[in-house]
Amino acid sequence: MTNLQGTVAVVTGGGRGIGREIALHQARGGAKVAVLARTAREIEETAALIGQEGGTAIAVPVDLVDTGAVEKALAGVVDALGPIDTLVNNHGSFRAFGPIWECDPEIWWSDVEINLRGTFNTCRVAAPAMLTRGSGRIVNLVGGGTGTSFPNGSGYASSKAGIMRFTECLDDTTKAGGVRAFAVDPGLVRTAMTELQLNSDAGKAHMPNIQKLFDDGINVPPSRAAALIADIAAGRFDALAGRMLRGVDDRDALEQDMEAIAAKDGRALRISSLDLQSL
Known about the structure:
279 residues; alpha/beta; seven-stranded parallel β-sheet; 10 helices; 7 strands; 49% helix; 13% strand; globular
């Protein structure tokens, strides 16, 4: 088990699925964990599970789109547990399926706002405090549509590609101060989000490939991303800061290859066949 003794971790969207698994892995490594989401009952269940295993956790209900509420929530985490060492932005929304002219504009935009603005809000608060201390790691979850087209999931894809670029920009502005940011794609995991894609009329109509992928046996255990993020929190993959790591990765092989990956500017969001200079 990765050693995270003496650290404090914040996990958003930690009430179920991938987020709950991430929170459990952080606690099993020895971290004190703050579990954030809008639904109090779910994050209280996660905190209770951590407590049953002998860990320390608190549940913090918060709407991550509300800037002031995020500021208050993270201040409360620091008061209760201490300075934040690891921030994991796992929260996500994907409810707008289909061509954009068939999507409810408010739902489409809500997906983007929850995913991207929520990540911005937590990082905006946590990163300066980490810089003051000279250390910290931020992990932002990405996913489908980050690096390729996702025509019937354009809101989700746009937000996740935005989070990928945001993560790179954040890392470039913080790494000199000892704070690193990473993007993690957990892979196709059977969660409440994917169940909505599988079972809703819009999901069945516009995203039949999701069912086919599950039928073909592609179902990544949430523990894969959780174990990877625990390793990131411990510093194992610092050479890949600003880049995308995946739940399906063989972590030992990734560690062996990470210097070469960074040297060739791999696992980054780039426009192919163009030599563009960073600003």
